[in-house]
Structure formats: structure tokens, C-alpha cells
Amino acid sequence: xxxxxxxxxxxxxxxxxxxxxxAPASEIAPSGKLRVGMIxxxxxxxxxxxxxxxxxxxxxxxxxxxxxxNPDAYLQSFGKxxxxxxxxxRVLAPADKAVSTADLWVISLIYVAAPGKEFPDIASVDKAxxxxxxxxxxxxxxx
Length: 143
Description:
Blueprint: H1 2-20, H2 24-28, E1 33-39, H3 42-59, E2 62-68, H4 71-76, E3 85-86, H5 122-125
Parallel strand pairs: 1-2, 1-3
């Protein structure tokens, strides 16, 4: 009988240890919803939103996007407790205020030159006197 009692006592004490630990959702999203900082630019937000939804689903919490209109506004948000996690370019994450993960996606840039102009490499584009325009491209949702 003593042996059964000790076994039950041990199981109860171990269960208390396991139940005493915080679940990842309560650590990452203490408000009960995951607030995700991201930049409201199609190429960035278009990838960040599904990744945020995936993380929220795995944590079992709703996701609340915290959108920043431009990279500078996003950069300024670090350290202000406006979001629980941020999904964006590593270069915009201040090293003293962020812990970065491995890259989740790579965005390839294509340079198209006007007739009569040539850019043999990126160094030829990234210099004084060269003007660059951008064109937003909608993400391909075909899978």
C-alpha cells in the first residue's frame, strides 16, 4: 500500500511540474492574441501575413497584424511594445533590440535597364548618379 501511495504521490508531483510551466502561447502572446509587426508593402506584407497566421495557428491564438506604412516606421517600432513578434527584413531589426531567426524567404531583385543602358552587376547600379525606379509586383498565389 505504501508503494502505491508513493507512486501516486510521485505522479501528482510530476504533473504539478508539467502544469506549472507556461505554454508558449502565453509567453509569446500574453494578451491572448498574437500581435505581429510587419511592413505594409505588398512584397513584405504579402509574405509576412501568411507566416503570421501560421504561427498564430500553431500557438492556438488569433493574429492581430500591426502594420507600418514604411520601413522607417517599422524600424522605429522596436522597443515600444507595439507587437509581440515582428516579421520583416533583418537589416531593419536593431541588433540591440531584436533577436533574429534564420531567413524565412529571399526576395530576388531584377534590374531592367532602359534602351542603351547596361548594368553588368549590382555594383554598377548602386552608385551616385544612377536613378532606380521600382514597380510593385503582386505575389504569385498559384502555389
